[in-house]
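name: query_chain
kind: protein
chains: 1
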Amino acid sequence: MKDAAPVELLFHEKPCYAQMRLFGEQAYIHIPHKKRRKLDDWEVEGHAVMFFGNRKGWLFYLPSSKSLMTSVWGEFPKSSATCREIQQWFLTWKPVLVEQRRKMNISFIVNRTILGDFNNEETVEAQDRTASVL
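structure:
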């Protein structure tokens, strides 16, 4: 289980990395002839939102109509990440531990301050004296 992706641990099946795309990646979605008129565009620009693992196709966001569309036909002209890069990201992704989250909390940082400690002030004064001599 050491080399298992979080998706694999959750759903107990190995994901198909060849079909995955980065969230928001630009794509051109083919519109079937039944859903368009004679002079309408054959493709529309969209952004990848989600890949359906249990069936073929993606969920796309279409900025022109501000809507979502599912389609099997998506062409990704500027593929920013290769299949191997996506696989490496899934394998190296680690959730933030509770202890790390607690240390990033502002109340933890405020509680760690020590009142009456002037060591930093003395260091700054020593640096100022050195700078004035130069």
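note: The chain has a mean pLDDT of 73.
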